[in-house]
Amino acid sequence: MILNDIFKIVVVSSVLFYGNKAQSDQTCNSSLLLLEDQFSASSEYNTKNNASAARPGGDGWSASSGGMYEYLKLDLKSVWEITSMDVQGSSIGWYPRTFRISYSSDGYAWTGYNTRLSDDSLGELFDRKGTITSVTFDPTIKARYIAVNPVTNHGYASLRIELYGCQSTDASTQVFTNVRNGIEVDTTWIPSQSPILIDSPVAIRSTTVLTVQAGVNVIFTTKSARLDVYGTLSVEGIEGLAATFSSNHPVLSAKSKWEGVIQGAGGSVNMTHARIRQALVGIQGNGSRVKLAYSEIHSCEYGVRLSGGIARTMTVGKGNNHSGRTILQAHADSGRWNGINLYSEEITMNNMDLFGTQKFISVHGTNTDIIFQNCNMTDEVLQNLIYADMLNGNLTISVKNSSVNSRSSAVFIKANDTRNVDIEMIGSQFSSRSYVTELLESRTRYDLRSVNVNISNCSMYSSGYKILSLLSCSSHLAGTITGSNFSSYY
Q: Which domains does the chain have, with CATH numbers?
């Protein structure tokens, strides 16, 4: 293995006691004495309510907005075991209604905290319980850095916090590997080099293979940073130990913090047990050589953007839970929440879970075939499984042995120059607060030539007053319904 233009920095922190020593090693619940220089924040409302005002007895930190990406960060200067935390608002009267906690040993790779009752990719969402909200950490947190993200707020994001715990016996050793130029020879990134820090575009040259092993964190530290793949990117995570591609932002729901993984001409992307988050576009390319298995994409403006090419398979996986499936999440708070932005001819999705995306697939361009098999797409945010309003050509949709729960139409088609539409639904369950399937024609000079809808052994429920809505969609409408159940609230 040759590391070209890669620099490795090892920093071993001295043990500094910024908190009171625990009264007993068995209790580990002493209040930490936090100093002003240990606090930083995403923004500050004024000098009185700056970051260090979040210390116990202070006026409390207040951000310059009530946005969901504000955060307060603490540097404990060495590794501590944190057993609990008290959270309250600021003297202004603002306070968090809900909040998340993340932690890090190196200040670059962040992990969302979950109690044993939660497995949220972003970290467990804690609710305010009163003037002071006490959180007991089970399991405890062992880290040097702690960040608290007020997600929803009364007023602007505001915090006062008190930490309890004791000095950890774990050494605070930090290893950084900076990658600044292209990957020109076959290279393997291993956990002892992690995190891998990238602050600019890095290209994997043609005929070159970059292998990323399980447990490696690849951290992109600027918005312009990205990974361009002209050779082969092989990500070899294992169950329970993913390889992560992320930014260094402590709020895991923050998106567009780096550009993403970009498949260039001739490039191949193969990912198993991978995690991609906080990018503008998680993965973009022509899709003909993109393979995801047992992976997770979330907190991106667009999860996947594919254009050109033919017959591509997005995911291959097995199992009935998150650990054995591919998970696609957007977790956007505004705009067009697209999981997959599709400009290509065929996409097949197997064993996929979808969360936090308003429009799972947004279809553009020419003739498109979309196939879902053994997928679970149920989330209160989901409005449309497929949203096609800019399609020119023919559209074929097949949903087999899947479950879809949407706020609006499971399939929404607004014909532009869409000529023929074929929809096949087999062995699947659909539920919607509106129509299950709605086909609409835009007022253009183009007409849908034919619409064919075939439904077999499905269950469909609408809380609206229509199950299938086909509005002036075609001069030729055909279809069959067999072995299926339909029900409506009205």
A: 12-167 (2.60.120.260), 175-488 (2.160.20.10)
